[in-house]
């Protein structure tokens, strides 16, 4: 009898908490539709020097990683909408100004990371890397070179190795907390090594990733982190990202997943501002580089 009563109370509290999150989420979404702050999309066409290693932030979790002659695009999203959430800052590059892309890496199938409209704009013979169980989506959109991968699977493109890594996040298209399919991050390694974390909470797997690769730059998510009681297992906070950087033994960090779509209670620029405040009096300040949409980080 007592067990049944306790179970009923737990379910009632859980239902109430999830309803509260849903209400706050709807209010946040509606407010994002009326507080759009667009930044004029850059019209420049990126150019690269011989043997250049660089990263251009495009916005949200989309970045162009250039490794000598190989171009890797992460979680491409150039859409004005992420389902019902309106974009608050324009993408840092126009789709038509992208260089030829050698590989698209997808961290997971949530619609702000695997955007159907965006993906359909690319040639259908591009290599698409995605977690096992999620390949059906790009295949259904006409892509012919889709490779489903598990953590630590790898491919090589003209001397650049792309390695899938574990992450702590749901990889499912429609279920925010499903254990399968898995979410992934990726290591992109040539003469320099870049780590793209995708979407993830703070987890011990960062230590193994850092042990397996000498990371020059880590692209770590810092946004959509409040309320912490719900988000902590799914999204890192700025404080978590600093801890992850240490666990990874990364030389430098570029924060991602902020400033383009307001997807949780934290404000549009709040994650960036909190991160900069955290490191302003720390030796990390020179190692944390915040990029605006369209800005390039040149690796030395």
Characterize the structure shown:
The chain has helices at residues 2-34, 116-119, 136-140, 205-212, 228-231, 238-248, 270-279, and strands at 53-59, 62-67, 70-74, 81-82, 85-86, 103-105, 127-131, 146-149, 154-157, 160-170, 182-189, 193-196, 217-221, 252-256, 296-298. By secondary structure, the protein is an alpha/beta fold. The chain has one domain: Metallo-beta-lactamase, Chain A, CATH 3.60.15. A hairpin with a 2-residue loop joins β2 and β3 (70-74). It is globular and about 45 Å long.
Question: What is the element layout, followed by pairings?
Answer:
Layout: H1 2-34, E1 53-59, E2 62-67, E3 70-74, E4 81-82, E5 85-86, E6 103-105, H2 116-119, E7 127-131, H3 136-140, E8 146-149, E9 154-157, E10 160-170, E11 182-189, E12 193-196, H4 205-212, E13 217-221, H5 228-231, H6 238-248, E14 252-256, H7 270-279, E15 296-298
Parallel strand pairs: 3-6, 6-7, 7-8, 12-13, 13-14
Antiparallel strand pairs: 1-2, 1-15, 2-3, 4-5, 9-10, 10-11, 11-12
Helix pairs in contact: 4-6
Order of helices and strands: HEEEEEEHEHEEEEEHEHHEHE
**Considering DSSP H and I runs of 4 or more, what fraction of the residues is helical?**
25-40%
Number of strands: 15
Binned strand content: 15-25%
Total number of helical segments? 7
Low-confidence stretches: 5-11, 22-40
What structural class do you assign from the helix and strand content?
Answer: alpha/beta
CATH topology type: Metallo-beta-lactamase, Chain A
- Please give the CATH class: Alpha Beta
Sheet bearing the most strands, described? 7 strands, mixed
CATH superfamily: Ribonuclease Z/Hydroxyacylglutathione hydrolase-like
CATH architecture: 4-Layer Sandwich
Strand order in the largest sheet:
8-7-6-3-2-1-15
* Number of structural domains: 1
Radius of gyration: 19 Å
Shape type: globular
The chain-level mean pLDDT equals 88
Distance between the termini: 67 Å
